[in-house]
């Protein structure tokens, strides 16, 4: 029996009405919402939406009910444009009215003073939205999206319309709104008045745009420093990540592939300051290299490593794994039949590689470069540890916010430069790729053997990748040795006391006691990262699918907003969340939810870029064949497309989880005593000089995240394209 075309609307209408009837409308303080379900008929803190209107005089909540009623009237109209107008009117009236009134009351309580004068001051006290308001607002958004589809947009597809509208609301609320709220401070002068000259005064100076370094001076402006470093890092990580991906997928020895993948991904599961510490132990003034040079050649130790070279090497460690994960899926997707066709036409392996294989990697190369560029600009941890006197925008923004100057306007002005740089690279990427087609995965059989790498290419890969991996192992050995010795630099006696301090277990009167000082932060971090990672990956791939398979007005702006979180330094994003969500109606500061949302939207762009690169390789005929067999868009997405996106799904899940476990700058201002994270605990230990416990904690995090990555890979599985693995030697092509 076929489903009624209005059934989704009826379900969302029922959800909206139930939210008004049986769920607490406002956020519950100091406890979970489900613990007060029996009190929805009670006071203003726990009452449902309907009780808030009738008993507590919050009459503006009637706007949501009115919107649901208007949409319900549309059910009496046959499906079509007339019905769509009712749905759209109801959704916009309810959602827009509730949101606008909430922001007005949250920002200026007097907005409704005249209207509610007869109801007393109680009407003006408002908490942040709770589960009831969230469900009602979500229902109104979905109803508005269905109205858009009924009007003929998105080819009338309810799923596509709801996905576009829903994701747009999320991006506007949790990326555009907080970022704009923070950045608008660049246009406020010292008196708090709007002035375009304020921006020019803050960034139109020698410190930002100076070019003295080209004329023999000591340093260039901080904007040029950041741009130069970002270009070097993006180029280096893209090239090295591509080399690793080619070796991992086209290596002749399966025994090499697994260790390669493990070591290549090691830096991404490590807190950023651990790599910096390992590099300092190697190349710092008192590091092993300088000590050896002094002993062997009499060269006095210097701080030569600190500066642009040190930051670049540290960022290469940090961001190459991202490029590797993106490029691995793209290399897997290259069709062997295309390479075999070239060899059949008597092209040798070298020419085939440079004329067929590499050009088909362009989408992945462009996406890896874009992500590396934006990550480098937004990086805070590495420049602060090994940057020395080399200033970049992220560190200048940090000191402008938390330093003695506390100049939020200057921080916002510098953040504008980062945003414009990111926009420029984003536009350049789109211009280079254009409308070219890179489809390599289609519905046709393609069981060929991927071409073995040309000998010259293989030698270059061996000469670059293996030394880099060895270098990686050395850095980590030095970094984590500190967790197993008594005191680094003075007492090298082996000990496990640091692990006992952090993760001790004892038997108490009521059973097992988590006595270690680090357990609370570890449990909180794992919980928030585990909740945010699947949502981040799913949302990122859904947005990538919308960008790759649908056409709609504002698509370019939609994509840019999805990437905007990467263009903003984590420190600024954290501060913008505090500024945006510190007052009703979206009052989240001090909760675990604001940390989870920061994790989600900070890491969202990697899922979007990995999914975009993968979608460019999938032939649209796969989607079209499923739709022609009368499968719905949702069924096609989950049963046909998603199984072919497993590499991108793994990349999004792994990156989202491990970055949530190891991020510092984005959440440093959001943590509280109740929601302490692993990285803030480690920073606290480092600040107290307790490096042993800090490094012991980092070791535990690496083991834990390695197990999590293995579990993700096991649960998602490998993509099955019906292709055989590369043999030890190239397949000979008979002469014609």
Structural class: mainly alpha
- The helicity comes to 55-70%
Given as residue ranges, the uncertain stretches (5+ residues, pLDDT < 50) are 109-124, 726-736
| Shape verdict | globular
CA gyration radius, whole angstroms: 28 Å
Distance between the amino and carboxyl termini: 58 Å
In spatial order, strands of the major sheet run 1-2
Strand content: under 5%
Based on the structure given, which CATH architecture of the largest domain is correct?
A: Orthogonal Bundle
Number of strands: 4
The CATH superfamily of the largest domain is MetI-like
Number of helices: 30
CATH topology of the largest domain: MetI-like fold
Q: Number of domains in the coordinates?
A: 3
The main pleated sheet reads as: 2 strands, antiparallel
What does this structure look like?
The protein is mostly helical. The chain folds into 3 domains: 7-151, no CATH class; 220-487, MetI-like fold (Orthogonal Bundle), CATH 1.10.3720.10; 502-696, Orthogonal Bundle (MetI-like fold). It contains 30 helices and 4 strands. The chain has a two-stranded antiparallel ribbon. Strands 3-4 form a two-stranded antiparallel sheet. The radius of gyration is 28 Å and the shape is globular. It starts with 6 loop residues before the first helix and ends in a 20-residue tail after the last helix. Mean pLDDT is 81; it is low at 109-124 and 726-736.
């Amino acid at each position: 029996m076929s489903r009624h075309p209005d059934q989704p609307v009826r379900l969302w209408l029922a959800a909206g009405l139930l939210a008004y009837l049986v769920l607490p409308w406002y956020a519950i303080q100091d406890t979970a919402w489900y613990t007060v379900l029996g009190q929805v008929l009670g006071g203003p803190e726990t009452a449902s939406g309907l009780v808030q209107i009738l008993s507590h005089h919050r009459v503006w909540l009637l706007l949501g009910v009115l919107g649901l009623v208007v949409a319900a009237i549309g059910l009496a109209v046959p499906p079509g444009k007339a019905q769509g107008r009712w749905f759209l009117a109801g959704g916009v009236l309810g959602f827009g009215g509730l949101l606008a009134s909430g922001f007005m009351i949250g920002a200026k309580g007097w907005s409704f003073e005249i209207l509610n004068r007869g109801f007393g001051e109680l009407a003006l006290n408002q908490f942040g939205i709770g589960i009831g308001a969230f469900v009602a607002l979500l229902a109104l958004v979905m109803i508005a999206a269905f109205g858009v589809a009924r009007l003929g947009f998105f080819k009338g597809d309810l799923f596509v319309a709801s996905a576009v509208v829903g994701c747009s609301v999320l991006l506007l609320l949790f990326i555009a709104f907080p970022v704009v709220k923070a950045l608008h401070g660049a246009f406020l002068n010292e008196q708090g008045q709007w002035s375009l000259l304020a921006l020019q005064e803050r960034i139109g100076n020698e410190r930002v745009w100076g070019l003295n370094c080209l004329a023999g001076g000591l340093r260039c402006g901080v904007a040029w420093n950041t741009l130069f470093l970002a270009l070097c890092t993006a180029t280096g990580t893209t090239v090295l990540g591509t080399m690793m991906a080619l070796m991992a997928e086209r290596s002749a020895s399966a025994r090499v592939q697994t260790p390669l993948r493990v070591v290549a991904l090691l830096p991404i599961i490590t807190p950023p300051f651990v790599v910096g510490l390992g590099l300092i132990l190697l190349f710092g003034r008192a590091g092993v290299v300088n000590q050896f040079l002094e002993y062997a050649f009499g060269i006095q130790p210097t701080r030569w490593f600190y500066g642009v070279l040190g930051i670049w090497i540290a960022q290469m460690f940090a961001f190459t794994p991202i490029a590797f994960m993106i490029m691995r899926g793209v290399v897997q997707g290259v069709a062997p039949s295309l390479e075999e066709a070239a060899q059949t036409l008597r092209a040798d392996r070298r020419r085939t590689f440079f004329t067929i294989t590499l050009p088909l990697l362009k989408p992945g190369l462009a996406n890896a470069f874009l992500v590396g560029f934006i990550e480098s600009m937004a990086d805070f941890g590495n420049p602060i540890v090994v940057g020395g006197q080399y200033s970049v925008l992220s560190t200048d923004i940090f000191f402008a916010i938390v330093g003695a100057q506390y100049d939020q306007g200057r921080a916002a002005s510098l953040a504008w430069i980062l945003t414009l740089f990111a926009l420029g690279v984003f536009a350049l990427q789109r211009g280079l790729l254009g409308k070219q087609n890179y489809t390599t995965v289609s519905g046709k059989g393609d069981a060929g053997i991927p071409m073995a790498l040309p000998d010259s290419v293989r030698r270059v890969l061996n000469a670059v990748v293996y030394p880099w991996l060895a270098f990686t192992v050395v850095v980590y050995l030095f970094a984590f040795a500190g967790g197993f010795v008594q005191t680094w630099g003075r007492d090298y006696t082996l000990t496990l006391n640091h692990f006992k301090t952090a993760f001790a277990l004892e038997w108490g009167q009521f059973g097992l006691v988590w006595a270690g000082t680090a357990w609370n932060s570890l449990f909180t971090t794992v919980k928030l990262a585990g909740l945010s990672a699947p949502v981040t990956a799913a949302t990122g791939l859904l947005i990538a699918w919308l960008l790759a398979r649908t056409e709609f007005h504002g698509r370019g702006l939609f994509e840019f907003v999805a990437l905007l979180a990467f263009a903003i330094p984590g420190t600024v994003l954290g501060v913008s969340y505090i500024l945006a969500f510190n007052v009703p109606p979206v009052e989240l500061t001090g909760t675990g939810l604001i940390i989870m949302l920061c994790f989600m939207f900070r890491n969202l762009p990697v899922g979007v870029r990995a999914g975009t690169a993968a979608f460019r390789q999938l032939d649209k005929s796969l989607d079209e064949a499923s739709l022609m067999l009368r499968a719905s868009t949702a069924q096609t997405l989950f049963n046909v497309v998603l199984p072919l996106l497993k590499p991108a799904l793994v990349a999004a899940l792994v990156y989202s989880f491990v970055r949530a476990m190891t991020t510092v700058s984005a959440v440093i201002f959001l943590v509280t005593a109740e929601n302490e994270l692993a990285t803030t605990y480690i920073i606290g230990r480092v600040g107290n000089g307790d490096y042993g416990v800090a490094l012991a904690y980092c070791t535990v995090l690496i083991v834990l995240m390695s197990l999590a990555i293995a579990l993700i890979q096991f649960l998602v599985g490998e993509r099955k394209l019906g292709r055989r693995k590369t043999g030890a030697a190239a397949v000979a092509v008979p002469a014609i």
